[in-house]
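Forum > Structural Biology > Help requests

Title: Can anyone predict the 3D structure of Thioredoxin domain-containing protein 9?

Hi all, first post here. I have the sequence for Thioredoxin domain-containing protein 9 but no way to get a structure on my laptop. I'd be grateful if someone could post the structure tokens.
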Amino acid sequence: KMAADTSVDILQKVLENEILQSAKVVEEHLDAEIQKLDQMDEDELERLKQRRLEALKKSQQQKQEWLSKGHGEYREIPSERDFFQEVKESKNVVCHFYRDTTFRCQIMDKHLTVLAKKHIETKFLKLNAEKSPFLCERLRIKVIPTLALIKDGKTQDYVVGFTDLGNTDDFTTETLEWRLGCADVINYSGNLMEPPFQSQKKYGTSFTKLDKKTIRGKIYDSDSDDD
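Reply #1:
Sure, ran it for you. Structure tokens for Thioredoxin domain-containing protein 9 below:
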């Protein structure tokens, strides 16, 4: 019993010492920072302030530039010709190829409207697939909805139907945000290694199976068996 008590005491002392050491390191670091600031003369402080102001100004200018190019809102573009112009002037573009009669396109619209406001660094567009046969053929779009994810004028990736989004109509905006983050088409702050739908147990095995039908190059809905 005596030996056990002694070893507990030793452990406690070691632990207390560790905590004290850590606190000391933090304190020394803070002291050094304060000292650095104290030793700065007026000119150095002014330069630091200027640098911060410039960084702030630059970020505001960037934001204004994005807004002037139509970022910050989810917009429909009227024609294929507009698509090329829009894509040319923005680094990151998400374009939803939709069809009025496809229910899943409305689900996609709802999430994209939210993300367009949140991710001002990316342009969010929608284009009627039936009015853009040339583009659909060129980009090999066979299933509706499809998102074309474009960086520097080149289509890098596609989100086809809801397959990558947990295979369900009930996917969250966070899940779509994660998928766009995987393609590096938005500035994603979460952990790419942890898809949000993995933690949503309610989906379990009750996934809605999506059918991809591409007969003779025709475009099919991901939520119906007929055209």
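The chain has six helices and seven strands. The radius of gyration is 27 Å.
Shout if anything looks off.
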